[in-house]
């Protein structure tokens, strides 16, 4: 089951009795700050949750399954998430 940004905003607003508009601004600011840091090559660490970093993927060739044509895919960057030990333990034990 997916959780959308709107649902996160609704939950925080309800839990903290803050207007949704104010929570939305805060969530957007956090996400923009994280995106800026990651595009700048920096690592983002949220203690107790995990860390986000960028990794480079090498250029490669692949086959289009529909046409069978060989395609070249250039080098690109991806985001890598490593969960914290406490989050991993919570997932394993099934608690939230």
Automatic annotation (TrEMBL):
This protein's record includes keyword DNA-binding: yes
GO cellular component, one term: cytosol
Domain of life: Bacteria
An annotated Gene Ontology molecular function: structural constituent of chromatin
Keyword tags: DNA condensation, DNA-binding
Gene3D superfamilies, sorted: IHF-like DNA-binding proteins
Example GO BP: chromosome condensation
Family: Belongs to the bacterial histone-like protein family.
Protein name: Integration host factor subunit beta
Organism: Desulfofustis glycolicus DSM 9705
């Amino acid at each position: 089951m997916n959780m959308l940004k709107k649902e996160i905003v609704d939950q925080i607003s309800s839990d903290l009795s803050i207007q949704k508009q104010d929570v939305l601004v805060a969530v957007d600011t956090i996400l923009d700050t994280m995106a800026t840091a990651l595009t700048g090559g920096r690592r983002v660490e949220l203690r107790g949750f995990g860390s986000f970093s960028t990794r480079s993927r090498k250029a490669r060739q692949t086959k289009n399954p529909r046409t069978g044509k060989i395609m070249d895919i250039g080098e690109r960057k991806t985001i890598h998430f490593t969960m914290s030990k406490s989050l991993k333990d919570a997932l394993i034990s099934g608690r939230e």
